[in-house]
Amino acid sequence: MNTTAHSGSKRRKKPMSLERKEELQGYLFVLPWIIGFLLFTAGPLLFSFYVSFTNYDFTSQMDFVGLRNYKYMFHGDPLFWVSLKNTLFYVVLMVPLTTFASIALASILNQKIPGIRVFRTIYYLPSVLSGVGVYMLWMELLSPDTGIVNLVLSWFGITGPGWMFDPNWTKPAIVMMKMWSVGGGMLMYLAALQGVPEQLYEAAEIDGAGSLRRFWHITMPLISPVIFFEVITTFISGFQIFQEGYVMSSDPTTPGSPMNSLLFFNLHMYLKAFKVFQMGYASAMAWFLFVVVLFITMINMWVSKYWVHYEGGDGR
Amino acid sequence: MSSATTGNARSYFESRRTGERIRKTIMFLLLAGAGLVFVVPFWWMISTSLKTMDDIMQYPPAFIPKHWHFQNYLETWTSIDFPRFTLNSLTIATIGVVGHVISNTFVAYGFAKIKFRGRNLMFSIVLSTMIIPGFVTLIPQYILFAKIHWVGTYLPLTVPGFFGNAFQIFLLRQFFLGIPNDLIEAAKIDGANHFYIWRRIMVPLAKPAVITIALTTFQGAWNDFLGPVIYLNKESTYTLQIALQMFKASSGLSQWHYLMAGSVIVLLPIVVMFFVFQKFFIEGMNISSGTKG
Questions:
Q1: What is the CATH number for B234?
Q2: How far B97 CA lies from chain A's nearest CA (Å)?
C-alpha cells in the first residue's frame, strides 16, 4: 500500500536514512499536539501573563499598567478575598471527605459479598452525571419545602437548614452533592485494591495481624500511588469550581448568591472577564490561581516522599 | 492431647467462620444502606417530575405522586425548543468524539511507538499541561477565537478537540505501550507504514481504550456548560445545558415538576449510555488507575 512512497524516496540521490525518516514520522504523529499546545496552551499562557500587566478591556485599550492589577487584587477588591475564601473553604472540606468516602466505599466493595456488581453500578452511576441537570436535582433535593433531605431530617426531629438559601449552608450542600459522585474515585481505588496480592494478606494474618493493621501496613502503602494521584487531581479540579456557583445560586440573576456565598474564585474571574470585560484584571486573577495550584501540587509532591510507596522504588 | 488440639482448631475455625459471616452481613447492610442513599435522588427526581403543581405545594412532600402526570414531560419538551437544543448538543458532542478519537490515538501512537529526538521531553510537557487550570488559558483563547470571528459558532467548542488532549494521550499511550513491538516490526516487514499501522492495527487493538475515551468525550461535551456559555450567543445555537439553565431562570424555583422533567430529559441519554457501555466505563477507569501506580 505504500510501495510508491518507498520507491520514490529510494530513487532520490541522497536517500534519507531510515532513522531520519522514522524520526520525521514521529514528529508528524505528534504534530497535532504540538500545534494544539502552542495555539491553545503555551500561547494563551504567555499572552495572559502579559495581559495581566495591562488594562486590556477587549475593545479599546491595552496599556501596560505594571503591577496595578495585582495591587488592586490584594488591596482594592474585597470580592477577591471573599471568592478566595469560598474556594478554600470548599476545597478544604471537599478533598478529605471525598477521598475518605471513596476509599471507604472501595474497601467495602472489595470484599466478597453477594450483589457486588449491582452495588458497584449503583455507586458509580451518579459520578458519570454532571451539569445543570444534576445541579437542579440537588436544588430540589435540598429545597426546604419540597425536598427530601429536610423531610428525612424532620423524621428525626431536626429542622433542616435552608441549604441553597442560607449562606452558611450553600458550600456544605455542594460538598454533599459531590459526595454523591464519589463513584469515579471509588472505582480507581477499587482497581488498585484488586491489584494487591492476596498472599500478602494471608501471610500477615498468619503472623497475627488484625484487619486494621493489615489495612494500614499492606493496603495503604500499596494503593498510596493511586491516592496520591487522586488527591492531586481532586485538589486541582476543586480549585476550578465554577459552574456550581453560577447555576445553583438562589437568585438566577445574581451568580454566587445568596450573599456571595457561592462566589467562587473562578466565578468572580469569569464575571470580571466576560461581564465587565476587565480582562487584564481577570488574567491577573487567573495567574494568581495558577500559582496557588502549582504551589499546592508541589507541596503534595514534596509530602508524597514521606507517605507514597512505590513498588520497585524507581520512582515511577 | 492431639484430639484436644484438633478440637480446638475446629472450634477456632468454626468461630472464625461465624465471625466472618457476621462481618459479611454487616458489610452487606452497610453497602445496602449507602446504596439506598445513592439511589433515592434518582427516585425523587422521577417522582417529582410526575407530580402536579398541587402535589408539589403539599407539605410534607409525598414519596409517590398521587397522580402520575406523564404529560409534564410533553409540556416541558414543548415549552422551550428542546428538540433543537438536543440536536445542537448531539452535534457538538459527536464532532468532539470524532476529533478526540482521531487526534489522540494518532498522537499517542507517535509517543508510544516511534522513536524521535525530544520525545521524552515532549511527553513530560504533555503530562505537565494537565495541572494547568483551564481558566488560565480561557481568556486568551476567547480573545483568539473572537479575533478570527469564531465566537457564536461551534468552532471554538469543537476544533480544539482535533489537537489532542493531555489525559487521553496519556491513557492511550499507556495502552499502546502494552501492545508488543513485534507486531509493528512484522507489519513493517510486510511493507506497512506508520500511518497504516496506526489506522489498521493499533486503533482496532486498542478498541476498549478508544471506546472509553469516546464515551468520556461525549459525556464531557454533553455536560459542558462553560464553553457554550462563553462562545454561544444566539438562542438557536444553544446546547441542552444552557437551555436548561435558561428554563430554570424563566420558570423560577417553584415549578419543580417541570424542572425535574427537564433534568430527566437532559440526563437520560447519559444514563442510557452508561448502562449500554458500562463495561467500558469501568474498564477505562481500570486502565487509567492501573497505569497510575
A1: 1.10.3720.10
A2: 16
